[in-house]
Amino acid sequence: MRLRSAIVGASLLIGTLIVVQGNTAYAAPTRYEAENAPATCVGTIDTNWSGFSGTGFCNSNNAVGAYAQFTVSAAAAGTATLGVRFANGGTTARPADIVVNGATVQSVSFETTGSWSTWITKTVTVSVNAGSNPVRINATSSAGLPNVDCLDFGLGGGLPSSFQWSSSGILISPKSDATHNIRALKDPSVVYHNGRYHVFATTTNQNGAYSMVYLNFADWSQANSATQHYLDQTAIGTGYKAAPQVFYFAPQQRWYLVFQTGSNAAYSTTTDISNPRSWTAPQRFYANGMPQIIRDNIGNGYWVDFWIICDSSKCYLFSSDDNGHLYRSETSLSNFPNGMTNTVIAMQDPARYPLWEAANVYRVSSTQYLLIVEAIGSGGKRYFRSWTAPAITGPWTALAATEANPFAGQANVTFSGTAWTRDISHGEAIRAGNDQTMPLSPCNLRYLYQGKDPAASDPYSMLPWRLGLLTQTNSTC
């Protein structure tokens, strides 16, 4: 999210990108429930924790070799994506082998999810034969497996080298009240939890003051009618707050809301994401303010758009400077949110606009991460570029990274009727889980974004951003 030279005087609108399913050649992933034959569970099928799909889940024995097994059917041999939906309310990760057709193909770690009723999906890519394929999740520690709800199977799998999207119309517009005369709503972050979408976004008012808003709803058709809660009326407080990112930090069993304050990266926490008044007062990530390497390179840009992602040992904080640099800081998982240090330039471009802001980093599988960054292209239009890497620290390889072949932009987004925006700007994917690892299934991607009226010519801080939803129409799954 871009800052102007003065924080006051800026008004923003958020655009949501809603993916609308078109006529596509792929099949949606098939779900195999742990309680339905021919699935087998070395343990018991239980129902005592909420949030599972189907009629139960596999609670394995606490033993090495305890397993949950599914038999998946493939129309042809090839690469497939497996999504294991699980909950681990324990205090330590539970490792397991993924065994396909009798051969161990990957070893994975099922991290803690904070509670037994918090379910996330771990995605792995495997090779399968035509016909039936037994897939076993085999515990390799004496604690056994996490609770296993189901297995989602998609033949094909993986990210394509080019993307095609269909966009919804405007889904979320700003709402005003007696004390909030809102002009724009933008920079959305979204999670799906307990049967509802929870959206956090930036607002700007008619005086150009920035703040944040929260809303939740069960279905996208209800998004625009959902109550908008102004977060300046909570402990988060008044003053400049913008560009939120929300996630569940499983080791502490707390939700984190990360945002920018104009001079630092900040965070608030809660144990109840649905209660906007439960957020704590903001705390800073950087005790000494902007790291020196950013001071040395930011030029006349702005330090914006903070993004957290963690692996099994470290948490990383990405940020942009509107001057062609993407930065990365780190701390240990056990020390998070304290101790952000070792700030480095993770990516740079000699021109500022191709590597502008609004970076997202997601874990697609245990060996693949996806980075997307907003760029400014011809005629000032916003679009997203993308890269992949085997680790959060890189090295990053271009995937769909040009204006002609973007991750998402005017070149590859279609609308039903007249396009309500030419900009595909700051947003966030609908994730496969809500925890700090930022899991993302490569199948049937959806992306919530901000867009604006193509005829709008206001100063940047007064542009009428709204939210819409993109849906991928060329999934390989």
Characterise this structure.
This protein is mostly beta strands. The protein has two domains: 30-154, Jelly Rolls, CATH 2.60.120.260; 168-472, Glycosyl hydrolase domain, family 43 (Tachylectin-2, Chain A), CATH 2.115.10. The protein has one helix at 292-297, and strands at 17-18, 30-33, 40-41, 43-46, 57-60, 67-74, 78-87, 94-100, 103-110, 120-128, 131-139, 147-155, 165-167, 182-193, 196-205, 210-217, 229-230, 242-249, 254-260, 265-270, 283-284, 304-310, 314-320, 325-332, 341-348, 357-365, 368-376, 382-389, 397-398, 413-415, 425-429, 446-451, 466-472. Strands 1, 13, 31, 32 and 33 form a five-stranded mixed β-sheet that branches. A five-stranded antiparallel β-sheet has the order 3-6-11-8-9, with no helix packed on it. β23 and β24 form a beta hairpin. The longest helix is centred in the middle third of the chain and has 6 residues, at 292-297. It is globular. Mean pLDDT is 91; it is low at 4-26.
